[in-house]
Design brief:
- The longest helix is centred in the first third of the chain and has 21 residues.
- By secondary structure, the chain is mainly alpha-helical.
- The radius of gyration is 19 Å and the shape is globular.
- A 3-stranded parallel sheet has the order 1-2-7, with helices on both faces. A two-stranded parallel ribbon has the order 3-6. A two-stranded parallel ribbon has the order 4-9.
- Helix 1 packs parallel to helix 2 and helix 5 crosses helix 9.
- The two termini are 24 Å apart.
- It is 47% helix and 11% strand.
- 33% of the residues are buried.
- It has a single domain, classed as Rossmann fold (3-Layer(aba) Sandwich), CATH 3.40.50.
């Protein structure tokens, strides 16, 4: 997606919506952010983690959006910021699901050893968290990370996907240094053949090789959040739905 669109939605769009909501004196404003604002971290991020880690352009604009919301909180607006982890589920044909076809068609390879953690958020778990936030007065002025009970290693996610697709688990591992070296050449090739996106980008390499996980204890402790669907069960349900049209 072009950066201008990402900025217009996450920054200008946030400012426009919250400004009008403030004028209309709405009872509670719930801002949908992302755990990507914390970037890639060595330890699970929590709501107090500095938003300084390496992240995508999407994550950077979401940081800007959160700053706007906090400005209105300081003006006395009743607002809450929620930060879902990687959202997935039946019918959600987002970036994460793109790897299903690669695994199914035996075109997937790891970048690095796959030992990095990725924190998923099944759509039903996210909706339960949103309902709790919307109903609780205690949530006003707070920020909450929402995700599945525990993160999984990336290689375990790939293994779970392969198992549910009934194909062999991918065994090809590309060293990170080699993948990063190839990026400029793949970008040039993509332009040459008018391909919309290169086969590899630095963002994709980071996504597949660095930790992206969260500590969701705050929303569990303060609002009683309890994820009902495990990541493994959620992946099974998501793949079953995906298989219907693939």
């Amino acid at each position: 997606m072009p950066r201008k669109i990402v900025y217009d939605v996450n920054v200008n769009g946030t400012r426009n919506i919250i400004e009008e909501s403030y004028k209309a004196k709405i009872k509670k404003f719930i801002h949908f952010s992302t755990f990507s604002v914390y970037g890639y971290t060595e330890k699970p991020a929590n709501e107090e983690t500095p938003q300084k880690g390496l992240t995508s352009y999407f994550g950077k604009t979401k940081r800007m959006g959160e700053k706007i919301v906090k400005e209105y909180m300081q003006k006395g607006m009743d607002a809450v910021i929620i930060q879902p982890t990687v959202t997935y589920g039946p019918g959600l044909n987002l970036g994460f699901v793109n790897m299903f076809s690669a695994i199914k068609n035996k075109k997937f390879c790891f970048i690095g050893n796959g030992d990095n953690f990725l924190h998923l958020c099944y759509i039903d778990n996210l909706m339960d968290g949103i309902i709790l936030v919307s109903r609780s007065k205690k949530a006003i002025g707070q920020t909450y990370l929402i995700g599945d009970e525990t993160p999984l290693m990336f290689k375990d996610i790939v293994g779970c996907v392969a198992e549910n697709l009934r194909v062999n688990i991918p065994k090809i591992y590309l060293p990170i240094w080699l993948a990063r070296t190839a990026v400029p050449y793949l970008k040039f090739l993509a332009k040459l053949i008018k391909q919309q996106q290169p086969l590899l980008t630095y963002h994709r390499i980071n996504y597949m090789s660095k930790n992206q996980f969260a500590n969701i204890s705050k929303i569990k402790r303060e609002l009683g959040f309890k994820p009902k669907i495990s990541s493994r069960e959620g992946l099974k349900l998501t793949i079953e739905d995906w298989m219907k049209s693939n």
